[in-house]
Amino acid sequence: MLKRIEDWNYYELLSVERTASQDEIWEGYQAALATYGDGSLALYGLVSEAERAAILGRIQEAFQTLRDPDKRGEYDLALLRHAPYFPPKAAFRKSVGKLEIGEAPPRKTLWARIKRLFVKNP
Amino acid sequence: MDKRIWAIGGGKGGTGKSFIAANLGLHLASLDREVVLIDADLGAPNLHTLLGIKPAHPDLGDFLTGAVPTLEAAAVETPYRNLRLVKGTENILFVANIAHYRKLRLLRQIRQFPTPNVILDLGTGSSFNTLDFFLSANPGIVVTTPEPTAIENTYLFLKSCIMRVLKLYMDHYKIKDLHQKMLDQIEKNSQSLYGFFKSLMETDRTYGTILYRALRGFRPCLVMNRTRNEEDVLLGRSVADVARKYLLIDMKYLGAIPYDEDVPASLRSLRPYYVEHRGSPAARAVRQMSEELAYSIEFTLRTPPEIRLPDA
Prior knowledge:
The structure holds 2 protein chains of 2 kinds. Chain A is mostly helical. In chain A, 50% of the residues lie in helices and 3% in strands. In chain A, strand 1 (92-93) and strand 2 (98-99) form a beta hairpin. In chain A, helix 2 runs antiparallel to helix 3. Chain A is globular, with a radius of gyration of 17 Å. Chain B contains 15 helices and 8 strands. Chain B has helices spanning 17-30, 47-50, 60-65, 71-74, 92-96, 100-112, 128-136, 148-172, 178-186, 192-203, 205-217, 230-246, 262-268, 273-276, 281-302, and strands at 4-9, 35-40, 75-77, 83-86, 117-122, 140-144, 221-227, 252-258. The longest helix of chain B is centred in the middle third of the chain and has 25 residues, at 148-172. The termini of chain B are far apart. Mean pLDDT of chain B is 85; it is low at 301-312.
């Protein structure tokens, strides 16, 4: 996907799939705030201050739209008019020869994974 | 089982590349997989110290000078089962600046090494030697720490890798005049890589497509080492996200390794950390990392990345 940063849609801004749940959207929003927030280390030496502020504004806009089911529906429809969308395929595990749909335990949320990292004896 | 070359690299020194290489090697070896660790840090080798092994011959220098015929002959047994080590050499001045043909010979021998897992511990900086070792491996793992200096050098390292990949493809397809154009444009600002491809697509779509595919084929992984809190872990995710968006590469965030006071202590006692502290959060993070990686490689082998051609 070769796109200018100004051309990213709301899902790309938050780095979530279009099928994302409200929880995933909230997570994506928090992560995006951490990336583009004031004094963020992640942009050090790569992105200018003005550019960062502009993207942060768009991220707020994206979250306000996607958290509201009605607005999100309208936005999705507008995106679909622009280009078709194909949801991601289920992962296929060669070692077990199965699609990762039913058998796989649900993936832990980002926060749960982060919290678990520092636990001394899980 | 298929052969895998792991490279641990990254721009800045002291981020824990050798630490991760040693622990990854010990972890894989403990899973009954044959592993060889190669100390490819030509300028400042110290992987043997992390494993508690004294410097002795044969080493990498002996292979490069021809004192031993093959790289395999330079690999020595370690006290750990399934794990062998090619030590770095003390003859630094000679090895740090090896000639091109010697480097190619070393790269060839690394590919032909009869062990399923070869782990390369790379040096700091973005010299052609380091970049070529990094690019020849899959997976290539970039190690960084949550400090501005390390983040800055990580982006520089990634940019150097990108330029090297594009240069190699330009040379192969004999696209000579583009290289200077790329150098001029990429230095400008954060969106310069996008600008370069955009203008290339307008002038020459075929070459643009070739180079864009080459760029998407470069898929490094990121590890955030020495994290002290949740923000540090999240920073790794942010860096990978920024690299995906601004540098247009398919970068995967493997995870974070928590800071541990015991690491310097185990270094001083010359006992490998992974062996001494198997249950620690950091050792657990290394295990999780290698599992995540094994899964993602398996997945990516099945489904090649979707390459959507950019709109001109």
